[in-house]
Design goal:
407 residues, alpha/beta, Rossmann fold, 2 domains, seven-stranded parallel sheet, six-stranded parallel sheet, 43% helix, 13% strand
Length: 407
């Protein structure tokens, strides 16, 4: 192992149990610390849950998108400085300011504590403030957010597309900042190609470091699995996650069998998923759990007959890796990095967005116990070989050394 480094790990929002950012900062900070490095996580709301021994510096925003009152109007006493004014003003014009305003707050803090860190590692805020930290600064791009923007625009009408373009205006900033940082890491070869294509960062400046799981936490079940129980994990009710084609596939299966679908995530009132559930008369067959603590998620995956990743795009897919680690039979689309993650033997794959093919693949796995066992064994073996957090931390630390040597 190389020298012990002092690392500031930045994350503009870090939901503990929903989406990949909170999971990423918790696991990476823990494993880097175990390797002998000093890691301090710097985060805006929602704050992450971190392991013992990893300090957290809170950089509070106005938290304008919190539940249950998103797009709220703060009291005058909540405004602390010009960054807060900028944040609220941008929200009032339909923009999403958090990546920018978090980066400005982080840069101010890092300049004040410049002698305390060797390197800054940003987790996809990619705001202008990263160019003013006074320290070597690198970033993780899980995938270009321009992909989410384009998929949402494709599903939107004219009036909705106007507000979406304003909301996603920050993606232009992210691309320009990424091009000016000394190095970028991403989680798959698919994402590296997309970072080069959509953000203009030369591919040879993008290091691929896959993420993973802790195989001692995500384990195969000790008892029998449920019958005809499908589980999907989704961080957001947006077109990119492919929930609508999955719901259509479940509706097709329900004409012949009592399939149940559990969605680890939430449906927005009046959103895509809720509308599809009503249209397809699936209210009694679909359960939305909201975000789950890790232990509950593991238990659910261990009971599931089959897990599914129906996404229209994935820069990686932590839910696929979590399911494979639990030896849960897996069905995925062929979108983005999913073929790269599951390989040739650990999942049944179908074309993205094809509800008929998805229904057929789910029926195939639900009907064949031998196939279930084969997929489960192959998935677990693939995770142990390629996708653990310790391997992620080791490769990330080696990358830090390369970047610092070049600075």
């Amino acid at each position: 192992m190389g020298r012990s480094l002092r690392i500031a790990l930045l994350s503009y929002r870090s939901k503990p149990h929903s989406g990949g950012q909170g999971v990423y900062v918790r696991a990476l900070s823990r494993e880097l610390r175990e390797l002998g490095h000093r890691v301090e996580v710097v985060s805006g709301q929602p704050y992450p849950e971190l392991d013992t021994g990893v300090p957290l510096t809170r950089l509070p925003s106005l938290d304008l998108y919190r539940e249950p009152d998103p797009f709220r109007r703060p009291r005058l006493a909540e405004f602390r400085d010009w960054v807060d004014v900028l944040e609220y003003g941008a929200m009032c014009t339909a923009a999403f300011p958090e990546p920018l305003t978090f980066s400005l707050r982080a840069a101010r803090m890092l300049r004040a504590r410049r002698g305390e860190f060797d390197l800054v590692h940003d987790n996809q805020s990619l705001g202008w403030g990263l160019l003013r930290t006074g320290l070597p600064t690198v970033a993780t791009v899980h995938h270009p957010v321009a992909v989410d923007r384009d998929l949402e625009l494709a599903a939107a009408g004219f009036r909705r597309s106007l507000t979406l373009r304003r909301w996603y205006a920050f993606t232009g900033m992210q691309a320009r900042v990424a091009r000016r940082l000394p190095a970028i890491t991403t989680v798959s070869e698919s994402s590296r190609r997309d970072v080069a294509r959509l953000m203009g960062v030369p591919a040879d400046r993008v290091e691929v470091v896959p993420v993973g799981i802790d195989p001692a936490d995500f384990t195969p079940p000790s008892g029998p699995r449920d019958i005809d129980h499908v589980v999907v994990t989704t961080s957001a009710d947006v077109p990119l996650k492919g929930l609508v084609p999955l719901l259509e596939a479940v509706a097709k299966l329900r004409t012949e069998r009592e399939v149940r679908l559990t969605v680890v995530g939430s449906a927005k009132a009046g959103g895509l998923a809720a509308t599809a559930v009503e249209r397809l008369s699936l209210a009694g067959a679909v359960t939305f759990t909201g975000p789950l603590p890790q232990a509950e998620l593991v238990g659910l995956l261990q009971r599931a007959t089959v897990a599914v990743v129906p996404s229209l795009y994935e820069g990686f897919s932590l839910p696929a890796v979590e399911a494979m680690a639990c030896a849960t039979p897996l069905v995925t689309t062929d979108a983005g990095a999913l073929p790269e993650v599951v390989g040739t033997h650990a999942a049944v794959q179908v074309p993205a967005g094809d509800a008929d093919r998805l229904a057929g693949a789910l029926a195939l796995v639900l009907d064949q116990r031998g196939l279930q066992e084969q997929l489960g064994r192959a998935g677990r073996a693939r995770v142990l070989e390629h996708f653990t957090w310790r391997a992620t931390a080791e490769r990330t630390a080696a990358w830090y050394e390369e970047v610092l040597a070049a600075c």
